[in-house]
Amino acid sequence: MSFLTQLQSKVMIGDGAMGTQLYAIGIDQCFEELNCSQPDIVLNIHEQYVNAGADLIQTNSYAANAVKLEKYGLEKQVRDINHKSVQLAKRAAKEGTFVFGTIGGIRRFQLEEVELEVVKDVFKEQAEVLLESGVNGLLLETFYDLEEAKMATNLMRSLTDLPIITNVSLGEIGVLNGGISVTEAFDELYQHGADVVGLNCRMGPYHMLRSFEFVPTPKKGYLAAYPNASLPDFRDGRVFYQSNADYFQTMGKKFIEQGVRLLGGCCGTTAKHIAAFSKLKEEAVPATKKVVRQFHHLTIKPAHTKVEKPLQEIVKERPSVIVELDPPKQLNTQQFMQGAKKLKKSGVDAITLADNSLASPRVDNLALGSLVKQQLNARPLVHITCRDRNLIGLQSHLMGLHALGMNDLLAVTGDPTKVGDFPGATSVYDLTSFQLIQLIKQLNEGISFSGKELGENSQFSVGAAFNPNVKYLDKAVKRLEKKIHSGADYFMTQPVFNEKQIEALYNETKHLSHPIYIGIMPLINSRNAEFLHNEVPGIKLTDTIRDAMAACGEDRQKSTAEGLKIAKSLIDVALEYFNGIYVITPFLRYEMSVELKGYIDQKTKAVRKV
Q: Fewer CB within 10 Å of terminal CB in the chain, N or C?
């Protein structure tokens, strides 16, 4: 009797974890490669699940695609590893045991890390080997990105008429990343060719069960549940899961009541968990009706604070000046606050606060932004890097900014830690700047990074960094356009020290409606100029500027005057083409930025009179 025919009338049992089982016995390498180098270990785990009562076992091929295998240097062994995975599972199978080829999702929050077309190609390569090797069906699992799951399901259906199971993983109870309801996701997966849809990983039985309570009994197709053993614990550098087989048996009954026909386990589950599920299948009566809980969407309220006119609108209406004042490296903030006060008085539109620039720890820019806003009634523009915070920290930081009424952000990747005070520190980079922009915009819709409704819209205006100091400016503009697609509202450039580069930038971007603030950094001496030119990525000075600064020697007053002269010359050109000037204050020398703001005001007033 076929797999789908059996599901029509009974509950079936899948297997449990493979990866965490291997991890638990001390293996710390590519798990899929073990199919070739240590097949007996893999075979033994398969046999444990078959003996525990599993009707369906998965091949040890979850990450056996070219993208995942590449980090181990195994991308050319896709065919061998997948073929061996099927051989081992078939050896372990008894009469009546179904062997499904497993393909795991690739894209999570790092959506741009692997383009969807690349994912499609590597899935096709893997699936063809699994199918040629004689699997009874395909099981797609741990898909956080619904678009990837739909693409994969549709692709598999184009390759085979065998049964397809597609399991997605949720960020929050009842919703996928992006706020898509689990019911909507299941319906779309059925439409793309899945015979069985379900949930796996991320959640233990309790939270996964709550998600199924929102799902009606399908009119066509079947439901699957592969929960983790529990929430994971972390002790002495290793991950542990609860051993709770009796609890699994109790929860298994409840899954069946919610219409689940295929029960298996994910991370942390063992043969004991599967044996507990297996005890249910003889007496279990598949549910055909159930009470469906209504998913209550929170009422999304507008932000509770009054929001100033966004900078991207201001700069379209008139010349706009924003000034960066770097948070201090020392605890005393007196000089910083004095500078911020002077800048506020000079009339700048915003004071921008870097986020541990050059990977060196400074006073937290959220704290300083709050002081600037509350004590000076000035407008802070807070930089956020991807380097220092994981997804949890980034969302928490953004929620804090929203609570304090700071809505102006600059999303940047961040300098790597090796350039800063702690070169051995970890660079997080859970996200790229593109993804950070997208997720900030998702908060503006009242949806958290994981898809959870937040009950209120944030109102962030998102700036993005742009480096025009490159050999091929057209390629840099393509990257800028990609940030526009991600949701950037305006751009702030790296310091520019070349009038011709400003004109070239205008010609390459004049087709765009998104405003650009041109970065202007006054030089303080020749050493400063040489350091920027030779050691700071993305900054290049002309020989004329370097020679002019060198001619000042060690005379501080003369060097300052020359630095301001150069900056004013660059501003003259920038204002011919752009409405936005981004003055970058060197070493808290805020008096230089105040002078440049006054110069810009004089220039713009003169233009108006003409």
A: C
How far, rounded to the nearest angstrom, does the alpha carbon of residue 277 sit from its chain's CA centroid? 35
Q: If residue 518 lies in a helix (H) or strand (E), which one and from where to where?
A: strand 516-520
405-423: burial string, b at 16+ Cβ within 10 Å, e else = bbbbbbbbbbbebeebeee
* Residue range 63-89, pLDDT digits in tens: 999 999 999 999 999 999 999 999 999
Task: Using CB atoms within 10 Å of the CB of residue 291, give its burial: 0 to 12 exposed, 13 to 18 middle, 19+ buried.
Answer: exposed
Q: Report yes or no on 305 lying in a domain.
A: no
Name residue 82's amino acid. N
Q: Between the CA of residue 325 and those of 338, 346, 382, 385, 598, what are the distances in Å?
A: 11, 14, 11, 16, 17
Please tell me the distance from the alpha carbon of residue 400 to that of residue 409, in angstroms, as a whole number.
Answer: 13
Q: In this structure, what are the phi and psi dihedrals at residue 33, rounded to the nearest 5 degrees?
A: -65, -20
CA torsion angle 486 487 492 493 (round to 10): 20
Q: Are 209 and 282 in contact (CB under 8 A)?
A: no
Q: Per the structure block, which two tokens stand in for 567?
A: 């900056």
Burial of 459 (0-12, 13-18, 19+ CB in 10 A): middle
Paired sense of beta strands 233-235 and 238-240, if any:
antiparallel
Query: In this structure, what token pair is assigned to residue 591?
Result: 């008096």
Instruction: Indicate whether 270 and 362 sit together in one domain.
Output: no
Give yes or no: residues 269 and 365 share one domain. Answer: no
299 is a domain residue = no
| Greatest Cα-to-Cα distance within the chain, rounded to the nearest angstrom | 92
What SS3 state is found at 534? helix
